[in-house]
Design brief:
globular; 324 residues; single chain; alpha/beta; 11 helices
């Protein structure tokens, strides 16, 4: 499998830290010093479907392909426009991708990694030639905008890749490792708490909003996610010292520094764009990939060795070592 194209789509509205400080007890210096975030994009009238369709159309245009040449469409998201139909089916319909099957992947901030790993399995089966893997979330739907601890962190956006079968001599995926731990689900949860609504317990309405135990998430990243990365390299023919770059989920600039310290990978190899977008959940890794390809720091087909690492609600985590 190879990555043939990468693209992104963002809402029109940009909200900087100064704007948040107008109604939250915070300021730009406080936010930047603790998160590295300067601004984020937030939807006004845009739907998740619209953002994903923009990404999908650009991917097809770059690859000079028709929609009916796609075999599958995977959308990684935890903020779909509807419970059903899936965002992927809506995108498939808008594109006219009549030969593609479509499904959403729900793994929070690890979603793009899960989707990419799934796509590789379908392509390697020999029955599917190419497809789209898009990570997209409208996190502003889940955020309590009166809660400083979460309101400063999140943004909205979509980004993705077009993947297709490649000659076996051009190996793209060297190694992968995925994991989940539902026993820690309460550390990061929220949105659509229908169980409590059906019971008529209005005191649980706060579960419509995203809640996070910051200390537990920090421990999770510094221990479980770091171990996932080191174990992946222990099992790989690629040495950690030969790695060119790390594209980790853009949750918080401090967490990138923690992963660098815990894994021994130099912090200079951890690419970042969190200052411009905040935490965009499933969109963060492909959004970072798209930016760095546009900047020519990463080049598709260059054989650069990059590590993609996601982690988030579930709890979920996963890493994929790629040859670009």
């Amino acid at each position: 499998m190879k990555l043939r194209a990468v693209s992104k789509a963002l809402p029109k509205r940009v909200v900087n830290n100064q704007e948040l400080a107008c109604y939250l007890e915070t300021n730009d210096e406080w936010i930047q010093s603790r998160t590295g975030i300067q601004q984020r994009y937030l939807v006004e009238s845009e739907s998740l479907e619209e953002l994903c369709v923009m990404v999908a159309k650009d991917l097809l245009a770059q690859a000079r392909l028709a929609a009916d040449e796609l075999d599958f469409i995977f959308i990684a998201t935890m903020t779909p426009d509807y419970a059903t139909p899936s965002v992927a089916c809506l995108v498939q319909g808008k594109l006219g991708a009549s030969k593609a099957f479509a499904m959403d992947v729900s793994a929070a901030c690890s979603g793009f990694i899960y989707g990419l790993a799934t796509a590789e399995k379908f392509i390697n089966s020999g029955n599917y030639q190419r497809g789209l893997v898009i990570g997209a979330d409208i996190m502003s739907r889940l955020v309590n905008w009166q809660d400083r601890s979460t309101a400063i962190l999140f943004g909205d956006g979509a980004a993705g890749v077009l993947v297709e079968a490649s000659d076996t001599s051009n190996l793209t995926v060297w190694e992968e490792s995925l994991g989940s731990d539902g026993s820690c689900a309460s550390h990061l949860k929220g949105g659509g708490a229908t169980t409590f609504h059906l019971e008529g317990d209005s005191s649980k309405v706060e579960l419509d909003f995203l809640t996070m135990n910051g200390r537990e998430i920090f421990n999770f990243v510094s221990q479980t996610v770091a171990e996932n990365i080191t174990t992946l390299f222990d099992n790989s023919s690629v040495a950690m010292k030969d790695l060119d770059y790390v594209l980790a989920h853009q949750a918080n600039q401090r967490l990138l520094a923690v992963l660098s310290k815990k894994t021994g990978i130099p912090e200079t190899k951890f690419l970042s764009n969190i200052a411009d977008y905040g935490n965009t959940s499933a969109a963060s890794i492909p959004l970072l990939l798209a930016d760095k390809v546009l900047e020519r720091q990463l080049v598709l087909g260059s054989q650069q060795k990059v590590l993609l690492t996601g982690f988030g609600g579930g709890l979920t985590w996963g890493s994929i070592l790629l040859n670009l």
